[in-house]
Specification:
The protein is an alpha/beta fold and about 375 residues long. The protein has helices at about 15-25, 35-40, 50-65, 100-115, 130-145, 160-170, 185-190, 195-210, 225-240, 265-280, 290-295, 295-300, 315-320, 340-350, 360-365, and strands at about 65-75, 120-125, 150-155, 175, 210-220, 245-250, 310, 350-355. Helix 1 packs across helix 2 (about 35-40), helix 2 crosses helix 9 and helix 5 (about 130-145) runs parallel beside helix 6. The structure holds iron/sulfur cluster. GO terms for molecular function: 4 iron, 4 sulfur cluster binding; metal ion binding; transferase activity.
């Protein structure tokens, strides 16, 4: 069972061997799949604080104490895909579907810019509601109006040409979580028409085009084993994404997985810390799912190497309709009105809020993006 040993006492030298693997990653060594599998199978709960401390050290070495704030706009909950775990999957007829009009999106962006946001994340289900050319024109207008605003898109799988059009229109980051890097596990979470191969192709295309590219996965999703997680960590090591989105699996009552248990916080924290060591330069958000899972989720994520928080800019009445999972933090701390409350956790984590673009360090160094 996944991470079952977290409940066992430290009785075996294998825990020490697992720690040696952590130290090797920390020194920049690459691990094999078998080594990742061993590490996950033998890391002990008592080692988690040490792992978190290493991750914080690494984050400080690369990014200092800055916590980058992104403004999140959930632009539509219409989706033609049917991921078994997702509350807004096409088959869920309980959802009131919405999509913002362009003038509403522009108003939200103008307001966010005036408040100091320099990264906007536009997230939505996979759909054709936004006609491609019109959407690209909208993007181009925004990026011309605000040359120092970074637009991040998270709109699912598209053709390489569509991604290129987004890039040409000025978008510079794209988030596409892979959810599971093990094809057999991926197939248990998605209908047959959605394949891991097509998702990986999208990620490869995004990176080749020049996007700061985000991948990531759920922790504790149905059927997940430590072998599956080893694939995820190996993938992070090989692909070196610029952003890594990790969060617990959270069940939703109107999905085929409605009675599956939610992921566990310690497992998510361990994955954050390992991700920080495996991809030191990654922009690593403390995800909303982690805050929804546990009242201290966000603080503990920051204490595990995370350095990004997304603030929901969508109007409150719309947030409830973007229900990817049960108990999502709709109007809690992670909405625009509560930025000051987040400051409390940020201070406790010894970090400071940064509203600037907060690019991946490789992009700053190469001056691909002017801040
Ligand atoms: S996870 Fe994304 S692609 Fe899958 S059903 Fe939900 S919104 Fe659609």
């Amino acid at each position: 069972m996944l991470f079952a040993h977290f409940d066992d006492p430290v009785t075996h030298p294998s825990h020490q061997e697992a720690w040696q693997l952590v130290e090797r990653i920390n020194q920049g060594d690459k691990l094999t799949y078998e080594e990742f599998r061993f590490l996950i199978a033998h890391l002990h709960a008592s080692q988690l604080p040490h792992l978190q401390a290493l991750a914080v050290q690494k984050r400080k070495a690369v990014y200092g104490d800055q916590l980058f704030i992104r403004g999140l706009m959930e632009i539509s909950n219409i989706c033609h895909q049917d991921c078994y775990y997702c509350g807004i999957r096409a088959s869920n007829r309980q959802v009131a579907r919405y999509a913002y009009r362009y003038e509403e999106l522009s108003a939200m962006i103008n307001r966010a810019y005036d408040k100091g946001y320099r990264t906007i994340v536009m997230q939505g289900g996979e759909n054709e509601h936004f006609e491609h050319r019109q959407f690209c024109t909208f993007l181009r207008n925004i990026t011309q109006q605000y040359p120092n605003l970074i637009i991040t898109l998270s709109l699912g799988q598209k053709s390489k040409e569509s991604y290129q059009d987004y890039y040409d229109a000025g978008a510079r980051r794209y988030l596409l979580r892979h959810e599971s890097a093990d094809a057999t596990h991926y197939a248990k979470l998605h209908p047959p028409k959605q394949t891991l191969a097509s998702r990986m192709e999208c990620l490869t295309n995004l990176k080749a085009i020049g996007f700061q590219t985000g991948a990531g996965f759920m922790v504790g999703s149905p059927y997940q084993t430590s072998a599956n997680l080893a694939h995820d960590l190996l993938f992070l090591q090989d692909f070196q994404p610029h952003m890594v989105g990790i969060g617990p699996y959270m069940h939703h009552p109107d999905t085929p997985f409605h009675d599956a248990s939610d992921g566990r916080l310690e497992h998510v924290l361990a994955c954050y810390a390992l991700a920080r060591l495996i991809v030191p330069q990654a922009l690593l958000p403390s995800t909303t799912a982690t805050s929804s899972l546990h009242p201290q989720g966000r603080l503990r994520a920051l204490q595990s190497g995370c350095n990004v928080i997304m603030i929901n800019l969508s109007p409150e009445e719309q947030r409830t309709q973007y229900s990817l999972y049960h108990n999502k933090t709709y109007k809690g701390d992670e909405s625009d009105e509560y930025l000051s409350l987040i400051a409390d956790d940020v201070a406790k984590a010894g970090m400071e809020i940064c509203m600037q673009q907060g690019n991946h360090s490789a992009y700053i160094e190469s001056k691909i993006i002017k801040e």
